[in-house]
Amino acid sequence: CPHCPEAKNLGKQLEKETEVQYFNVDTVDGLAEASYYDIASTPSIVFLDNNDNEIKIWRGKTPRLEEIGEEAAI
């Protein structure tokens, strides 16, 4: 994935504020997560609340940090 390093860098920044999990779609677990959230393109970012309810999903792109703050209220 040519844009995945950018998404991973964003994840590292977000780790300062919230829990971050990474999934690789080349693994069984990664494919299961992608299927569950209807993700067909990479990179994708999924934000969940404390009850694992979906707040926001960005599919096939890496959002700007400011965009995440506005949309997901981290």
CATH superfamily: Glutaredoxin
Overall, the morphology is: globular
Structurally, the number of domains stands at: 1
Q: Which percent band covers the strand fraction?
A: 5-15%
Q: Whole-number radius of gyration?
A: 12 Å
Task: Please identify, by name, the CATH architecture.
Answer: 3-Layer(aba) Sandwich
Proportion of helical residues? 25-40%
Largest sheet: 2 strands, antiparallel
Calculate the terminal CA-CA distance, rounded to whole Å: 26 Å
Low-confidence stretches: none
Largest sheet, spatial ordering of strands: 1-2
Name of the top-level CATH class:
Alpha Beta
Compute the number of helices. Answer: 3
Order of helices and strands: HHEEH
| CATH fold category name | Glutaredoxin
Number of strands: 2
- The whole-number mean of residue pLDDT values reads 91
* SS-derived structural category: alpha+beta
